[in-house]
Structures are given as structure tokens and as C-alpha cells.
Fold Probable serine/threonine-protein kinase pknH.
Amino acid sequence: MSSKNKYNPQPESSRSTYILGGLAVLVIAVLVIGGVIWQSNRSKPRNDGYGGVQNSEVQVALQADGVVLLGKPDAATTIDLFEDPMCPYCAELENKNGQELAQSIDDGKVAVRYHVLNFLNRLSASGDYSTRAVAASECVAETGDAVAYSAFHAALFSPANQPKENGNSDHTNEELAQIARDAGASDTAAECITTGAKVEQASAHAEAGRQALAASGATGTPAVVKDGTVVDALSNENWVSQL
């Protein structure tokens, strides 16, 4: 075959190849950067800087079944929130929507029934961290200090405090008590946590919460339920404002 019949790329063809290749790289880079920005915005706390509940009219009560009710007596609506202190997705929800939810509670738009579960005990270093965190939550709620309870709840799920699943350590009762003190809880609450006074009943309450979760139709935690309907809280970033 003569050289005249061979394919010989021309300068224009080579230049087009480089241009197309460069555009492809640029498009990929834009998509990657866009994805990073989208993910960053997706996990960014809403209403950042508000903190926990602040309204003195907000009340907190530990109910007989271990559910903690937080809200104004005349709140427009009430939701059920199921979570486990070891659950990373629960922490994600708290980090993103906790402050927004706190303001809605302050404004009387919503009250929250917190069901704190313990099915992730097995993934904690101590083997019973979730149960002890449930007990700590009940100790703080029982004092009736809504502001302290809201702050303590947020602290339990903060990146600084939430133990890692299958991690090498979690918090002792004394450390949980200090987290409660830092959140503004009373010495009575701290002593209740330190002595483990509510651990046994917390285990029974967590089991009742697990059964309530199963009955709600939700498949796992975190789960938000309003009027018997499961709310898509993780995927719908506007769920709080739409309650």
C-alpha cells in the first residue's frame, strides 16, 4: 500500500482533538466542583447561629413511656422524631436542621416528641453507650429545663461528642454528665447521669420507642413522623418549614 493511501492526521485534526479533549476535562472539572459545592450546601446548617431553644414559654416533659416532649403548650403541630445517639445520619439531620427546628419550637409552630433509641449499642465501644445516652437525656428532661435539654440534645449529636460506630471509645457517665453541665443542666441532672439512675428504665423506654418506630412505617433512624405520615427529612431540606 502506498503512503498516499495511509491515514495521516492533519494539523487541523490534531488541534480539534486537543480542543475537544480540553473541553471534556473542563466539563468534568465543572461537574466535580459543582458536586462538591452542592454537597457542601446540602450539609450546611440551616438557620446557622440560632442555637437551641431560647423561649422561656417552651416546656420540656419526660413522659411515662420515656418520650421527651419539647414545645410550647399551644404549638400548632406536633411531630415524632426517632433517633439513636450513635446514628451518624441522625447527627447529620441535627447538624443541618436542629437550629431551624429550635426556632420553629420557639415560635410555637411545632412541638417535638423525641424517641431516643438504643439499637446501636452493639456498635459502641462500651456496648451500652446508646442506652446510657438515653438515660442522660431523660435525666436532663426530668428537670423541666427546656433550654438546657435542647442544648444537651444538640451536644449529644455534635461532631465533637458523638462516638464513632465501631470506634475505640465512647463517653463514660461522668463525661455525659459534664456534657450536660456544659449545656446548662443542673447538678441534679448531672448526678442522675453520673450514678446511672435511669439506665434500667431507659433500656425499657428505648425498646418501647423501637416498637413505636416499627409501627410508624419508618424503616430506620432518623425518622420524622407527622400525623401518622413519615416525613422525608433527609432528602427534603425544606421539611421543617413545610410542617
Observations:
- The chain has a mean pLDDT of 88.
- The longest helix spans residues 11-43.
